[in-house]
Structure formats: C-alpha cells, structure tokens
Fold:
Amino acid sequence: MKTSQFLLRGFRRPREIAGFALGKLERQVLEETWRLGEVSVRDVHRALTERVAYTTLMTTLDRLYKKRLLDRRKEGRAFFYSPSVSRAEFEHGIREDVIDGLLGGGAEGIQPVLACIVDTVSERDRQLLDELDRLVKEKKRELRRKSD
Structure:
C-alpha cells in the first residue's frame, strides 16, 4: 500500500481518529461488548486480562453509554450494557466524519478533494476507478428515483 509522501499537520487516518475519540480502555471495553453482546461490569472485568479496577470499568461503561455507543438496562441494582452500534456502523461513522471534515469547506473546496480521490484511486487500481464510477452512477439513479 502506498503511503503519503508527507504528513499534514492535524490530519489523521480514520483508525487514528477512533483512537483519539476513545481512550485505550474505552476501545477495549467496546471491543468486548461487540464480542460478547450484552455485558455487565463483572463480565467485562473477567474478560479483560489487564487488572483494571471494577469501579474504573463501571465509569468506562457509563462513559460509553453517555457517548451513545452503548445501550443499557437496569436489572435489580446492576446495569447491563449492549452495543448501540455495530463495529461496521462505528467505522462508517468515523469515515463519514473524515469525509465531512475534508468537504466541509463549502463547494469551492470539494472539487480539489474529489480530483485528488480520483487521482489516488486510479494510481492504485484502475478497477477501483471503475467501481467508483459505478457507485456514482448508482447514486445518481437513486437520487433521480427519489425526486420523481
């Protein structure tokens, strides 16, 4: 895979953005909820190999709930948490945020970004350029159907 010739100050790849949006422990706990489904604090405490305080996990699960990445329900005195988004939805949201950040400058900023995407894709693989063309045509048909 080709890497960038230079590093733009402040630019991060989608995986790096997820790393900054969530702390290390938050990412570990979220991974466990995706793996296990519905979890209690005790379940996560047992699953993590690192020794993490039970109360720290309680706080972490609560933070993920407040960030709307987990749902929770109360049973007796305990909370049970489950993912409110799948891993794929989470990663898609990050990609959307990156694209929105690139295109958020208004109409005048879109053209150079799109041209760069086409150039980069065509350098790597001509089949990807064909796939990009197919996706654009498909989206145009979809938008036409909605407006009719």
Q: What stands out?
A: The longest strand covers residues 70-75.
